[in-house]
Amino acid sequence: MNIGFIGLGNMGAPMALNLLKAGHHVYVYDLVESAVQMLEAAGASRESSPAQVARQEIDILITMLPASVHVKQVYLGDEGVLAAVGKQVLLIDSSTIDPQTAREVAAQAAAQGNDMLDAPVSGGTGGAQAGTLTFMVGGDEAVFEKARPVLQAMGKNIVYCGGAGNGQVAKVANNMLLGISMIGAAEAMNLGVSLGMDPKVLAGIINTSSGRCWSTEVYNPYPGVVETAPASKGYAGGFGADLMLKDLGLATEAARAAKVPVVMGAAAQQLYQTFSSQGHGKLDFSGIIKLFSNQ
Ligand code: NAD
């Protein structure tokens, strides 16, 4: 297939590389020259704007951008995608954004005859490189089936979540729970160690007991408990605290719009905001344990 790809950052670049590896022709655009050059060297064609990508003979156009404001700009701006794209092109936004914006942009695409899916991902940069991402997809189910083979070149679990915006709903609900559970894991580990427990023994007990969760087992925030976790590497790499703060903001904003209480989610957002304001926004999100201890 011929595929347009806009947004070649930590996630988008390896995703576009996997499309090239699968034999697709890829037309790319990003604001950062070095990112474009890397894809060009791997065989992609460079374009000069989102509209220029949209004007190519493409079947599918994928975007992987930081936040809602960039998605609106790239799709709805003057040199944007919708102003230039042919009706036959299927649009897929894989950025993590709020469900309301995803629904607004999909409605504008539909009004001019374009099918659009929201398809945010989980699995991090490692999953993007390995082609093992989970895609949470919202939109028309028949359109989802058309997109599935292309998404499979970048991911392992491709899950249909319902109508437009529902991919983003699944993503914000999961990440809100992750933020809350990481803070809980940090508090519990710090309490136990402060009261005299060995961190590895404590984690071993939690992970065979009812307190067990992904944040205690796979990604424990206490240094030295899980050798491969960012906590054991000075909280470098992984999923940045500022990205978690963004996702908690999406969850609380979506909850406000829907008039649904998210008490723990709002508390988690404020704790990550505190952590970020202390200059730790670039650390892995499990570094939140620093709020409770000297780790
Ligand atoms: P990133 O900041 O590394 O990359 C975003 C890219 O978009 C950059 O290269 C930037 O230059 C480009 N961009 C911004 N505005 C643009 C515009 N107007 N036109 C063209 N390009 C533009 O971010 P990332 O880590 O790749 O994340 C992308 C999305 O995926 C975010 O919504 C993030 O929340 C989500 N996500 C990230 C991870 C992760 O572990 N990094 C995991 C899951 C989901």
Automatic annotation (TrEMBL):
Q: Boundaries of each 6-phosphogluconate dehydrogenase NADP-binding domain copy?
A: 2-162
Per UniProt, what is one Pfam family of this protein?
A: NAD_binding_2
One GO term in the molecular function aspect is: 3-hydroxyisobutyrate dehydrogenase activity
Gene3D superfamilies from the UniProt entry = N-(1-d-carboxylethyl)-l-norvaline Dehydrogenase, domain 2, NAD(P)-binding Rossmann-like Domain
Q: Has UniProt tagged this entry with the keyword Transport?
A: no
UniProt keywords, alphabetically: Branched-chain amino acid catabolism, NAD, Oxidoreductase
Q: Where are the transmembrane segments?
A: none
Listed name of the protein? 3-hydroxyisobutyrate dehydrogenase
Q: Which species does this protein come from?
A: Advenella alkanexedens
Q: What is the lineage of its organism?
A: Bacteria, Pseudomonadati, Pseudomonadota, Betaproteobacteria, Burkholderiales
